[in-house]
Amino acid sequence: MKKTGFGKTAQGKAVEMTTLSNSNGCEASIITYGASLVTLTAPDRQGRFADVVLGFKTAEEYARNPFFIGGTIGRYGNRIAGGRFRLGGREFTLTRNNGENLLHGGIRGFHTVHWEARDNSTAEGEGLTLRYLSADGEEGFPGNLSAEVTYRLTKDNTLRIEYRATTDRETVVNLTNHSYFHLGGEGSGDILGHRMMINADAFTPVDASLIPTGEIRAVQNTPLDFTKPASIGGRIEDPHEQMRLGGGYDHNYVLNRQNEGLVPAACVLEPDSGRVMEVWTTEPGLQFYSGNFLDGTMAGKSGRPYGRRTGFCLETQHFPDSPNRPEFPSTALKPGEEYRSTTVYKFLTE
Q: Fewest CB atoms within 10 A around its CB: which of 55, 199, 272, 313?
């Protein structure tokens, strides 16, 4: 484990970076700003390493990053319709930062705050735990929420991310990570040639503002069907209504789940390098986002601009707008309870 400075934000706040490594040569670098994943390296079929996540060189770039790149997302990942919800007989009004909706926790989401970090290495691998106390009323959410995220890089080239949270007042919570992946290497073009499989027979359709309609719809006979491996770009311009509304893929998949605990969520292959990424999670949903809103206005670590569809996200989560959808799995957290969630990104070659 190596700790280094990562500069300061425009407000003068110092940011620290911790790099985890394993005996195979893989590395994962995390900064205290936004508990953000900056670097993640993995070998190709020839044993050559590349950084497979999008990211920036400076703290200041993370602080003005409008795309949530690499950040820990909270209190609530994805959207809440109208920036409001009812809980315990009361209505709560939230920050609206996506039209009339709240997106990824609001203007001051967890990806914009400074987290306290400590070493949490074990026999499983080097690890880092980051903590943040979100005050009652922050972005309109009730309760003082004590949140922590642990990154662990294991001996089998797996990055394990574990989330925990407690509250002193009933609230809602839905934490995730917003890394963008390119398994051919960050800055090496679009991701349309990646082949993906998603372990989901259904998804939650959205309206024009990307809020779920409440329907659970089968993926069969739609361009959202990844029950068998298919290229990301093969159907991304399909005129299907859901593809037009999302500008490509920006949808929550309802994961097939026969048991509690970790289940496979997705598997992605980049054919040229042979890199394979498996995603496992304890969550009920997975947001597949094909980087449709990346617009080339920010350059990444390689110096190349991040244009449209130069990275994809696989955000493990509860469903969007769950606080307003009692038919969806609940995101409510009460005092005395503990929110827990785990996601695993495992790297292999083919």
A: 272
| Residue pair 179/69 in contact by the 8 Å Cβ criterion | yes
**pLDDT below 50 — which residues of the chain?**
none
The token pair at 330 is 């609940």
Contact at 8 Å (CB) between 195 and 275?
no
Catalytic annotation present for 178:
yes
Active site residue 182: no
Are 204 and 212 a contacting pair, CB within 8 Å? Answer: yes
pLDDT computed for residue 10 by the predictor: 82
Active-site choice (178, 182, 194, 251): 178
Q: Which of 138, 270, 283, 315 is catalytic?
A: 315
What SS3 class is residue 60?
helix
Q: CB under 8 Å to 127, separation ≥6 — which residues?
A: 20, 119, 120, 121, 150, 151, 152, 153
Residue in this structure with the two tokens 């993370």, named with its chain if needed: 62
- Residue 11 has what pLDDT? 85
**Helix H or strand E encompassing 79:** strand 79-80
Distance CA(80)–CA(141), nearest Å, equals 12
What are the φ/ψ torsions at residue 160 (nearest 5 degrees)? -105, 130
Q: Where are the domains of the chain?
A: 2-349
Regarding pTM above 0.90, the answer is yes
CATH of region 2-349: 2.70.98.10
What does the block give as tokens for 314?
A: 């696989």
